[in-house]
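Quick illustration for those who missed Monday's session on complexes.
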Amino acid sequence: MTTNITDEKISRLEELFAGLPGLGPRSASRIVAELLTTRRQDAQRLCQDLSETLASVHHCPRCHTLTTLPMCSVCADEARDKSVVCVVETPADLQAIEASVAYKGGYFVLMGRVNPLQAVGPEELGVDTLLGRIDKEPIDEVVIATSYTPEGETTAHLLAGVLKKHKPQLKVTRLARGLPSGVEIEYTDAATIASAVAGRR
Ligand SMILES: [Zn+2]
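Prediction with zinc ion bound:
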């Protein structure tokens, strides 16, 4: 099978992959070539799984992460510590913290971060759901685990203000500064996350 550079269908696939986070034109073109040749079975499965998942995915009503279940597996787990909630930006960050095995509480996923230029504030990030949980559940601590980027820091600052105003006796902590500045949580290794969870303040 020869891949023609000007083939419109193949180019469209390459463009689609190249636009995904973490991928560029080179890796996109390699992925497409593999899916169309040596990994045709994986490609079929990708189509089927993606289409089924798209049909059933939604935000967990409690933590806002993505799930195909009525409630995500973390929220449905009775053994989790109900007194602490960790606020993250994305489902990928949630998974990175889960992989560190250092944290046993619940989560709240912002699905983004505060962006004044695009009029994204705490309300747009669903903070009302989190405040509702603070009223109903025995939560005494919220750990803010947004990234140490300027947007992540702004988000943490605004969120801490909203939380403290809502419930002054709430303990609001931030992951310890072991995390490198400017780095997304999801790209941080498990051991670093574990020490940042332990050293939160
Ligand atoms: Zn959930």
